[in-house]
């Protein structure tokens, strides 16, 4: 076996169904079984999913974690319930690796363009195997969390603004090849996926839906989670504390201390990280020496699942964690490794974000969160000198995306801009 083949990280998916499209990260494979696997994957977290040709917006998938040089062989499950893919253990080893890739599947193994592969790695570098095991739903399947069909039948089809943009098909379907990348073709593919990802946006006004639902059925108390499918299994995200528990330890506390403890959300990061470190619910994570990397991993995880699955539970969790990171002043000052990784992650999120997102709208979570982050960095310029370049890159990406700099957010958040 050649060194390149021995070090390749490989996934093979057998028994693909004719009525489905199989996808991997940002790439959708061609028709069923034309491409059976990918052999140039980067080690780390990957999202493997299916979507039907008739209803492509309903994407179902699960995260897997691959080690360098590992091969995984899966079969598409025949059953409609339970896990989507079943690993074929007898083929998932190095003994069969060369025979699979260079044997009967030689012409069905393909590569992902390097630029797409690198982009995926950049936004998943804190999603490790421990985090995947902890967060995944009971049945392992992650699905689109859509607004209930009954509501739309009652409120009118014009309410489903998702039809205006194919946001849940942000992936790109390419004819993968096992030959060397054509750089010009790869660049065009990267541009296409970047353009498709710009469709990522918050397009449904739940307040408007709530008003419509109440007018149709006033006796029923509408809740957001009633609008999803009955068989929806929630993702096991960490609980976000509403307040700093340390407040209860003080016999006497001044108004200034109380305000400071409410504004500095380091307690949120501390609480979530302890959820991984303290063996709660019989689970303990040990890989990351910096416990806050698990919290950053949840931020990356929730972003991807809203991006690829249009999962509203993930969007709400992303908003909460983003606010917590951007207001965690004491943690930002003390934890250099975390800040550098966070700023890098946030830079890619901004670049992927929809350029039509209205940063001037009232109480916009992105504007408020980034405005708070800017204020902390400006107020602690000397202590945070080490992250100046990373912050500048984030500012440049924000400026290119929205036409304003992070310095302008203070005026927006204080209603100076009309």
UniProtKB/TrEMBL annotation:
<dbReference type="Pfam" id="PF20981">
    <property type="entry name" value="AAR2_1st"/>
</dbReference>
<feature type="domain" description="AAR2 C-terminal">
    <location>
        <begin position="251"/>
        <end position="407"/>
    </location>
</feature>
<dbReference type="Pfam" id="PF05282">
    <property type="entry name" value="AAR2"/>
</dbReference>
<feature type="domain" description="AAR2 N-terminal">
    <location>
        <begin position="8"/>
        <end position="137"/>
    </location>
</feature>
<dbReference type="InterPro" id="IPR033647">
    <property type="entry name" value="Aar2_N"/>
</dbReference>
<dbReference type="GO" id="GO:0000244">
    <property type="term" value="P:spliceosomal tri-snRNP complex assembly"/>
</dbReference>
<dbReference type="InterPro" id="IPR038514">
    <property type="entry name" value="AAR2_C_sf"/>
</dbReference>
<protein>
    <recommendedName>
        <fullName>AAR2 protein</fullName>
    </recommendedName>
</protein>
<dbReference type="InterPro" id="IPR007946">
    <property type="entry name" value="AAR2"/>
</dbReference>
<dbReference type="InterPro" id="IPR033648">
    <property type="entry name" value="AAR2_C"/>
</dbReference>
<dbReference type="InterPro" id="IPR038516">
    <property type="entry name" value="AAR2_N_sf"/>
</dbReference>
<comment type="similarity">
    <text>Belongs to the AAR2 family.</text>
</comment>
